[in-house]
Amino acid sequence: MAPQLGPHELLHVFSFLEARDLLSTAQVNKVWNEVSRTKELWRQLCLRRWSSCKASQMVPGTQTWKQYYFCRSELEFRMASGRPEDFICKAIAGHKGWINELAYVSTNECRFDGRKKSVVCTVSSDGTVRAWDLNEGTQIWSSPLQPDIMENLVTYPQLQLVVTIDSRGLIKAWKADNGWEWASFRLPKSPSALEACDHPEGPFLLAACQGGNLYTLTVPQLHLVSKVPVFPNNPVSLNCSPDQQWVFASTENLHLGPKVFYIPSLLYPSEDKPPVSTTLPAYLISRGCWAPEEAARLIVVHGNDNGTEVIVTTFELGAKKSRDRVDVLVRQVASFLLPMIPHLIKGLGSEAILLASDSKLVQFTIYGLQLAAFQDHEKHITSLWVDSSRVITSSFDLSLRVYVWNKENKYPILKSCYHLLGGSHRWASGFTHVESDSMSIVGVETRNDGTGILRSYCFRVQHS
């Protein structure tokens, strides 16, 4: 008679199993059942499947790792299926003008203890910034009426902070839980860009104005750290790298090449030296984005020398440090001709690019291989949201389209899954923005009367 395995030996063997296999082993006998429910087995399953999973998402006494695994698996299934029974849709109104921007102020953690709320903030032409509970479909707070149009905002979820900017360049920081005004700073001219950066040494804010200057401010105090001329008398667009060491600055002036600044030189400016930067060899620029899974891989859409062709060029950036200076290292990784003129560009992983051109969505590699193309929308695509599990587009056809990544091949390839409908074209002109977190999707629906509402889709999951 063969000797039976003890609990420790079984635990070692079970550590190689997947969730479905563990459920089967639990049916064998009482000992196997007890071992299969071991906390560490299900914790490792969660960490293997979701690398971002943290112990902080578990509240003692309310949930086990096994329950977390099945709750999150159910949530992912519902978000990939999009059936009417998978979510609750709410139309959330309150602003008396159009909504210019929105951003989540709640963290992106998956929690299934009943306490997780999806909260967004919006700014509007009505001169207010407001916070909304998407699950309840209610307004949490509204700022006092401001004298000018609120144009843009960024959020710092870990600090529970919202930073806004109005049409005259007044920047304000607000506490996200109650709308209390924390600090303010005024740009000398109207704004052109606002970028939140979570640097390893602490969060800070980048702001640019129509005069072409770049401002670095502390958060939340909004104290000025540095002011740098970038494109004199031209508006500036900003985009920070995933490692928060570089900021990509571009302008609408097609004859000015884009620049990249080394962020530590902005945070610790020198009195006798300009900040460390370089101009990229890519003129007639259209758009740029970073590859999210690389420290500093920049993808730029630009024209050729005479402007007759559209090119996508990928650069790697690095810094060579010596005792008294820092040199910027730029290496071209890839380049290819693009058979379209995109108005939106996003990166995925280290080698995938998503481009939107009018109503078409196309996926390329950075080497020019087309992986997928979709013509799901009937009208212009207005915004593009991307993370490691799905892509969402919004359009003037009053729909949101949801795609998921098929990661079984060498390159992850998009798969079209479903669409979410907004209101009636009798009352609305389309979706202008879309954002998402781990448990919800929210779009800005512009109304024909000149106002905007939020339309939220909160996905159901059993709290068990």
Summarize the structure in words.
Keywords: Repeat, Ubl conjugation pathway, WD repeat. The chain is mostly beta strands. It has a domain at 7-78: Up-down Bundle (Monooxygenase). Helices cover 12% and strands 45% of the residues. It has six helices and 32 strands. It has helices at residues 7-14, 19-25, 30-36, 39-49, 65-81, 263-267; strands at residues 87-92, 99-104, 119-124, 129-133, 138-142, 150-156, 161-166, 170-175, 181-186, 191-199, 202-209, 213-218, 224-229, 237-240, 246-250, 259-262, 277-279, 287-290, 297-303, 310-321, 326-338, 344-348, 352-357, 360-365, 370-374, 381-386, 390-395, 399-406, 413-421, 428-436, 440-447, 452-459. It has a four-stranded antiparallel β-sheet. Strands 2-3-4-5 form a four-stranded antiparallel β-sheet, with no helix packed on it. A four-stranded antiparallel β-sheet has the order 6-7-8-9, with no helix packed on it. A hairpin with a 6-residue loop joins strand 28 and strand 29. The longest helix is centred in the first third of the chain and has 17 residues, at 65-81. It starts with 6 loop residues before the first helix and ends in a 5-residue tail after the last strand. The model has no long low-confidence stretch (mean pLDDT 90).
